[in-house]
Specification:
Arc Repressor Mutant, subunit A; Four Helix Bundle (Hemerythrin (Met), subunit A); 11 helices; 69% helix; 4% strand
Amino acid sequence: MSRTVSPAQPVPFQVSPALRHDVRNHLRNQIFDGTLQPGARIVESRLARELGISQTPVREALRELEQMGLVVSYPNRGSSVRRIEPQDAAEMYTLRAHLETMAIQLALPRISDDDLATLDGLIEGMIDAGDNQDPELLTKLDTQFHEFILECSGHRLLLRTWQSISPLNWTMMTVVRLRDRNLRELAERHRPIVEALRARDVGQAERAVREHVLVLGEKVVRDLEKIAESRNDERTEHGTPG
């Protein structure tokens, strides 16, 4: 008796998450350090050739960057670096301040001595990264510090909402924008938050985290405003409409 053999189903090509993430991080770093300026086009085929890879991981990386708000894509025009306006930064930092204030209210009665030791360790790691002039590591540890407090709050939806605003990207942008600030100083700014948690003083903890986020946010907004003013001055000088 003959048996019908079903044709083999093609195995879909799977993009390596590691490769996609490498491309994403490569582009993200170029955006933050100014190598890729706002408005710069990112051509998939050209970037793939430069990196010696196929266009698939490049396309996936660009999709992730678009979801993060760093890249915009247009039909038949490809992708370009998104221009971050002062209002974008102002909205993000004020929202983050509210989310982290709520988180610290919820975390304070739950946080243990071991949790405080973890936060102390993250600060020490940030200080070491700052002394070694490693802004990328400092940024990662900075984000872990704040995320750990969100986790200690026990509020899963609050944590997911905080994660959705891509705090790692904004923290990296803060470090890059505030070039005049000492990296060690940026790390030390986390100590008042832990001191307030250790004292079990909810009011002090709220003020510490709110000031921590908003003061840096205001500096980033001012930096972006200066960039926007310079851009407008150039347009005026060259008679280019805004």
